[in-house]
Amino acid sequence: MEEELAFGRAFLLAPVAIAAGAIWWFSRAEAPAFWALMLYGTLFIIAAVLLRHARALIRLTTAACALFFAGALFAALQTDRLSTVMLDSPVVTHVTGIVAEREKTTSGWRYVVDVSATDDPVIHRPPQRVALVARGNKPPVAVGGGISGLARLSPPSAPALPGLVDFGFLSYFDGIGAIGYFYGPPEPAAMAANAPKPGAVMLAIAELREAIAARIRAVLPGESGAFANAIITGERRAMGAETLDALRNAGLAHVIAISGLHMALAAGIFFTSLRLLLALSVHGAEAFATKKVAAIAALAAAFFYLLVSGMQVSAQRAFLMLAIMLIAALFDRPAISLRNVAVSALVILALSPSEASGPGMQMSFAATAALIAGYSLWQRSGSRRHAESRRNGVIRILFLFAAGIVLTALIGGLSTAPFAIAHFQRVAGYGLLGNLLAMPVITFIVMPAGLAAMLTMPLGLHGPFLHVMGAGLDWVMATAHWVKQLGGAFSTGKAPAGFLLLFTAGFVPFVLLRTRLRYVGVVPMLLAFGLFARAGDHSAVRILVSEDGDLVAIVRNTSAAVSDKRPPAFIYEQWQTALALEETVPPIMVEPGEPFIDATDRRARLDDNAAWRRGRAELAGLVSEALLTPDRFYCKKDLWCVAAPDGLVVVQALHPALVGLACDVGDIVISLYRTGYQTCRSGRFLVTPQMRREAGAIVFTLAPAFGLSEKAEVHDGITTVRPLSGEGARKHACTVVTIAPSVTTLAREWSRHRLYDWRSGDFRSPIALPERLVISGSDESGRPACPEP
Question: To 5 degrees, how large is the angle CA 771–CA 775–CA 780?
C-alpha cells in the first residue's frame, strides 16, 4: 500500500469515492437531509486533515468518506439547480414555444421546444421544455423561431420492468419535462417581444450545424449520409432501424455516439498532421515548440467539433478528457495517463454527478482506464523483448500495429462488457470480430476523410472527401450486417442484484493499482459473474403489466404469451432483452358473438340486464377456454383479454363498462380506462390507471404455496394421486402472488410528478400497493383453501 501511495494511486480513487456518493444519493427512496450531508462531510474533512499523518489505511478511509459525502452534495446541488418541471399525465393540447434544438429523423423532424404557452386545455403545471416529433416533408421551423401546433404530450416513461432504465430520471437531468408528437405539421408562430430566445452564439452554431448537415446529405444521400451526419454533427435519428440494430449486434454502437473515440481521432489526426507540417520547416521547428503549437490547435479543433456535434453529453465528457490531456502536453506532462483520466472524471462529477449512474460515463472511463493500464503493463513487461528485437524494425512495426489493434479491441470489449450486461442486458458475441474489421477503416479512412471534408467545406472542395468517407461507412455497415448474421448480440437477461457493484469493487483496484495488490480485485469480479449461476429459478410464472396497461404478458421460462398481436416495440423489446425471451405466443382472437355493448363507445354502459347476462356468459366462456390452455391469451377485440396461468384468472378489461364483470370473474383485473371505483367489490385485485401511473409497470410473480393442487383417490385399496386441472385446479388452488412495481419511490424530484393532481393543484397521497397477495380457491367442503395471510 505504501508503494501505491508513493506512485500517487490514491488520487486515482478520488473520483471513484465521489461517484459512489452521488450514486448513493440518487438511489435513496428519499433525499437525505442537506444539512446532514454538510455536517458529516465537514466532520470527515476535519478528520482527514487531522489524521493526514496517521497510518495509510486510516487517512485513506477518512479522505474517502469526505469525498463520498462531497459526491452526495454535488448530486443534491445539481438536482436543485435543474428543478425540471415534469408533466403529470398525458394530455392533448395546443403548444406554442421557441425551437431550442431540432434534428432530422427518418420521417420528419424532432424539435426540442421551450414552452411559452398551452391552450385548450391550459396545463396548470406546464413543463418548461418538451421534445416533440413532427412527421412529414414540410420545411422545418428554424432554431430560435416560434412554433405552434396541436400536440400530444406524455410524461417520460417509467422503467419497463423493475431495475431497468428510468427514462424519467434521464429526462429530468436533460431538462425535458415531457415528450410527444404533433398532430400534423407544426406552424411557425410569432412570439411576444419579451419571450426568451436563444442567444446569438447558439443560433449561429445551430445554423452552422444545419448547413454542414445539408451539405453532407447533398453529397451522400441515404443511409451513408445519415451515418456521416451521426459522426460529424451528432444527428443519429435519421439512421434506419436496421442499420442501428446491426451496429448494436456487431458491437459497433459506439461508432455512432460522438465520444472519446471520435474526439481523440479528430484531434489526434489534426495534432499529428500539423506537427508534421511544422517539422518540415527547419527554422520553424527550431523557433517554435511544434508540439505545443499543435496541441493548442488540436484543442481548438476539438472545441469546434464539440460545437458542431451538438454538445451532446458524451461529446462534452470526451472533450473534457481530451482537453485535460492536451493541456498536460502544454506543460510538458504526460498526456495519456491515469492521473489525467482521474482529473477529467473529477471535473465531470463536479458539474454533472448524475452522469455517474449512467452507462455512458461508466463505460467510457472503464474503457479508457483499462486501455491505459493495459498498455502501460504491456510496455513495462515487453520493454526487454522489444530491445532485443529492434534489428527487425519493419517486422516489429507491423507486429506492434496488428497486436495494438487486437489488444485495443480486446481490452475495450472486455472492460465494457459487464457494464453492457448491467445496463442493456446484452453482449455482442462477435464484438471483437466486428471491431477488428471496422475500426481500422474508421481510424484510417472515415475520420481522416471526414476531417478533410470539414476543412475544405468552406472552399466547396468537400465532395471527394465525403465520397471517400461514405465508402468507408458502407464498409462498416456491410461488416455490421455480416457480423450480425453470424449470431450478433445475445441477451444475458437482467443482471442479478449486486452484480455491477461487486464487479466494480474488483475492477477499480485491478485497473488503477500497479503492484500485486491489484490482483485482490480478481476475486470480486469472479464472484460477480458467479451471481449468474445463483440468480435463482425463473420457472415461476410472471404476469407483466405495462405502464399504460395496453400490454400484458404471461412469462414462463423463456416464453411469453402476450395480449396484443403486435406488442409495442418500445416496451416489449425491453422485456425480451431483460428476461431473455426466446418465444412470443400471440393471443387467440375469438370471433365476436351477439353484441351486448357498443365497443367503440367508451361511455356506453351495461344498464340492460340481458346485456349484462350475455356479457357475463361470454366472459365465462373465455375463462373456460383459458383454463384449458393456461399460457395463452383469449381476446375479443375492444372488449377483453383473458388468460389463466396455473389456474389464476387474469382479465384485461378493454372497455370501462366491463371492469365490474371482470371483477366478478377474474383474480387479477387490469383496467385500461378510469372507472368510478379503485377496488373490486368482490375483493379481487384491480390494477387501475391511477395505480399504474404511480407504480409504473407491475410484475406479479406466482408461487403456488399450499392447498389442493392434486387429489388422492382410493380404489380397491390402491391410492392414486391425480393432478387437478382446468376448473378443478382453479377452485382448489392456493396461490401467493408477489407484486413488484417498476417505480420504487415517489418522493424524488424525477418521480413525484406522478402524484400531482391538476384538479386540486396539489400532490396527493400515494396508493398503498401491497407486497403480496394470497389468492384462495376452496377445498372439498367449500371452505377457503388458504388461511388468512
Answer: 155
Residues with Cβ within 8 Å of residue 422, at least 6 apart in sequence: 359, 495, 499, 500, 503
Say if residue 569 is exposed, middle or buried (CB neighbours under 10 Å; 0-12, 13-18, 19+): exposed
Rounded Cα–Cα distance for residues 758 and 751 (Å): 16
pLDDT digits (tens, 9 = 90+) for 651-709: 999 999 899 899 988 999 999 988 878 888 888 899 999 999 999 999 999 876 444 44
**Which residues 6+ apart lie within 8 Å of 517 measured at CB?**
1, 4, 509
Distance of CA 718 to the CA centre of its chain: 60
Which amino acid type is present at position 349?
L
Q: Which three cell numbers stand for residue 72?
A: 452526495
The residue among 75, 70, 63 whose CA lies nearest residue 26 is: 75
- Calculate the alpha carbon distances from 126 to 101, 146, 690 in Å: 19, 18, 20
- If phi > 0 it is left, if psi is from -120 to 50 it is alpha, else beta; for residue 541 that is beta
Whether residue 143 contacts residue 99, with contact meaning beta carbons closer than 8 Å, is answered with yes
Please name the residues in contact with 112: beta carbons below 8 A apart, sequence gap of 6 or more.
99, 100, 101, 102, 129, 130, 131, 176
Residues 64-98 as b or e (16 or more Cβ within 10 Å = b)? bbbbbbbbbbbbbebbeeeebbbbbbebebebbbb
Q: How do residues 701-757 score in pLDDT, each as one tens digit?
A: 987 644 444 444 444 444 343 444 444 444 445 788 999 999 999 999 999 999 998
Is pLDDT at 46 greater than 60 in this prediction? Answer: yes
493 three-state secondary structure? coil
- Give the Cβ contact number of residue 688 at 10 Å: 21
Residue 785: all three cell numbers together = 383453501
What's the grid cell of residue 615? 356479457
- Determine how β-strand 698-704 pairs with β-strand 685-687: unpaired
Strand partners, 384: none
Q: In which residue are the cell numbers 383454463 written?
A: 627
For residue 426, what are the β-bridge partners? Answer: 491
pLDDT at 42 > cutoff 80 = yes
- Copy the grid coordinates of residue 450: 471526414
98: DSSP letter = E
Residue among 593, 581, 591, 675 nearest 631 (CA): 581
Question: Would you say 424 and 359 are in contact if contact means Cβ atoms under 8 Å apart?
Answer: yes
Classified as helix, coil or strand, 179 is strand
CA distance 423 to 418: 9
CA pair distance 660, 629, nearest whole angstrom? 24
Q: Which three cell numbers stand for residue 616?
A: 357475463
Contact 291, 275 (CB under 8 A): yes
Q: Which three cell numbers stand for residue 262?
A: 471520435
b/e string for 380-401 if b means 16 or more Cβ within 10 A? eeeeeeeeeeeeeeeeeeeeee
- Under 8 Å CB-to-CB from 750, ≥6 apart: which residues? 84, 86, 166, 168, 169, 171, 172, 173
* Helices and strands (DSSP H and E) totals, the chain: 26, 25
Burial (CB count <10 Å: 0-12, 13-18, 19+), residue 625: middle
pLDDT at 704: 60
Strands 178-182 and 426-428: unpaired
| Angle, alpha carbons 506-512-518 (nearest 5°) | 55
Pairing outcome for strands 698-704 and 734-741: antiparallel
Q: Alpha-carbon torsion 671, 693, 162, 489, what sign?
A: positive
CA torsion, ordered 552, 547, 111, 150, to nearest 10 deg: 90
Helix, strand, or coil here: 631? coil
CB contact set of 172 (below 8 Å; sequence gap of 6+): 79, 82, 84, 86, 156, 749, 750
Is residue 419 within 8 A of residue 501, CB to CB? The reply is no
Task: Please state, in angstroms and rounded to a whole number, the distance separating the CA atoms of residues 256 and 262.
Answer: 9
